[in-house]
Specification:
Distance between the termini: 65 Å
Shape: elongated
Strand order of the largest sheet: 2-1-3-4
Structural class: alpha/beta
Helix content: 55-70%
Radius of gyration: 29 Å
């Protein structure tokens, strides 16, 4: 039933107005209540809108390159030149990569497998491993997205190159056909 308060009694608009006016006066009179009512929500809005950025830039990473070919270096360069990653160097083995991750000196290790160039040139799929520091989950998802996009761009570039070579097309023409 509309217009009824607790206990089924009818609400008197004058009483509601009187209580609301009393509460407003109380809020404006007490600095703590005023801050909680008006200042704190505004500050939280500023923090949540501008203070929490989901972009993850300059994440330290290392590369473990088992192939050491020209194509694996080109692939690594895409990560090195990215603003999202901060290259800290090549590692020699998996133990060194693990130690860097455990000591939090890097947040990611890119592991390029042996025969990377040969398999890609022959059109076979290649599994590149990405070791991520699992301490904070949100940056991990963001970094994984960056890795996936760089990987996809490299794959598209290789497909374009292969199509151009196979059909004697210019790279620009081959790119339009994909």
């Amino acid at each position: 039933i509309e217009g009824r308060g607790p206990g089924g009694r009818e609400m008197n608009p004058r009483r509601v107005w009187a209580v609301a006016w009393k509460e407003c006066r109380e809020i404006f009179r007490d600095r703590l209540y005023f801050g909680l009512a008006f200042v704190l929500p505004f500050m939280l809005m500023i923090v949540f809108c501008y203070g929490l950025v989901s972009d993850v830039e300059n994440a330290p990473f290392a590369i473990l390159d088992h192939d050491r070919s020209a194509l694996s270096r080109d692939y690594a360069r895409k990560f090195i030149e990215s603003r999202y990653f901060d290259f800290r160097g090549y590692v020699e083995d998996a133990r060194e990569a693990e130690r860097l991750l455990v000591d939090a000196r890097v947040r990611m290790v890119l592991v390029v497998p042996p025969n990377f160039e040969r398999d890609l040139r022959e059109g076979r799929p290649v599994d590149v491993q990405t070791l991520l520091d699992g301490t904070f989950t949100t940056p991990i998802r963001t970094r994984k997205g960056y890795v996936d996009s760089i990987h996809a761009a490299m794959g598209a570039s290789l497909r374009t190159e292969r199509l151009a070579r196979a059909h004697g097309l210019s790279p620009a023409r081959a790119e339009t056909l994909l």
